[in-house]
Write a structure and sequence with these properties.
By secondary structure, the protein is mainly alpha-helical. The chain has one domain (27-255): CDP-alcohol phosphotransferase transmembrane (TM) domain (Four Helix Bundle (Hemerythrin (Met), subunit A)). Helices cover 67% and strands 2% of the residues. It has helices spanning 7-18, 27-48, 52-75, 81-108, 116-135, 150-166, 176-192, 203-206, 213-228, 230-255, and strands at 144-146, 198-200. Strands 1-2 form a two-stranded antiparallel ribbon. It is globular.
Length: 276
């Protein structure tokens, strides 16, 4: 005669099978995000120590790492809500707090309380830009950014510092012409982040599996040109990009086209494929 199953002993097994599995954290994309965060922290420390060239290089390294973590997460199918929040916090440090503090230490500190204005406008613009990006992520035309992206704004401010420091100017806070130039550039970058000007995102090109051979050649030539004089060429590139949004905005207004990059309908044929 068969014995009846021992039900009490089976209960822990069933409980273990029905217990929801804990979601782990993906290591590679989050490690890249942490590296970007460290670059922003390192940039601040170097600026405090007066090593502005190293501070500038660290911010540009953070921008490169920031462009990689999302792509790596998509390539490895390891996207997560935690990673998205971590990326935003890292961006706030590397492209919000770091550039504002660096430019204040470098050029604005001797302007008195007036020097606080562009630094605070910049860091506020970065916070508002990142918050708006997170809220509107599903309704923005993926071909464009709404306002100047925070990494590009940081590159604009940091690029100026790198160019001037590379030219041999020291004690910039005591040179009025350079201090007020930094004032204007920082204010421009901060306000540009919260405008509605459309900035091309390059995501459509980057999302393609294949690109024409000429594109690879152009990228190689661009890298070679930047290597000739990184401070001046990077600053020039981001100056052009910083103005491009206003040029696109003005061109659309002249043509009578809508200037907003917010996609309001998924049923409109002109807006198909624009949602993320």
């Amino acid at each position: 005669m068969n014995e009846a199953p021992n039900l009490p002993d089976d209960e822990p097994v069933l409980a273990a099978e029905t217990r929801p599995r804990r979601k782990g954290l993906y290591m590679l994309p989050n490690a890249i995000t942490l590296a970007a965060l460290f670059s922003g922290f390192y940039a601040i420390v170097m600026a405090i120590n007066g090593r502005f060239e190293l501070a500038c290089i660290a911010v540009f390294c953070a921008a490169v790492l920031d462009s990689l973590d999302g792509r790596v997460a998509r390539m490895t199918n390891s996207q997560s809500a935690f990673g998205e929040q971590m990326d935003s916090l890292s961006d706030m440090v590397s492209f919000g707090a770091a550039p504002a503090l660096i430019v204040y230490i470098w050029a604005l500190k001797d302007l008195g309380k007036a020097g606080w204005i562009p630094a605070f406008v910049y860091i506020s613009g970065a916070a508002l830009r990142l918050a708006r990006f997170n809220v509107n992520i599903g309704v923005v035309d993926k071909r464009f950014f709404q306002g100047l992206p925070s990494p590009a704004a940081a590159a604009l401010v940091i690029g100026l510092i790198w160019v001037v420091d590379d030219a041999g100017f020291k004690g910039v806070s005591q040179i009025p012409a350079l201090a007020y130039t930094a004032f204007a550039v920082t204010l421009f970058a901060g306000l540009s982040m919260v405008t509605n000007a459309p900035y091309y995102s390059f995501k459509v090109v980057g999302s393609r599996r294949t690109v024409p051979f000429i594109v690879i050649v152009a990228i190689a030539l661009a890298i070679a040109l930047v290597a000739l004089d990184p401070p001046k060429l990077l600053f020039a590139i981001f100056c052009i990009y910083g103005l491009s949004g206003y040029a696109i905005y003005g061109w659309r207004r002249m043509k009578g086209r809508r200037t907003s990059v917010i996609v309001t309908s998924t049923d409109d044929p002109d807006e198909q494929g624009l949602h993320r």
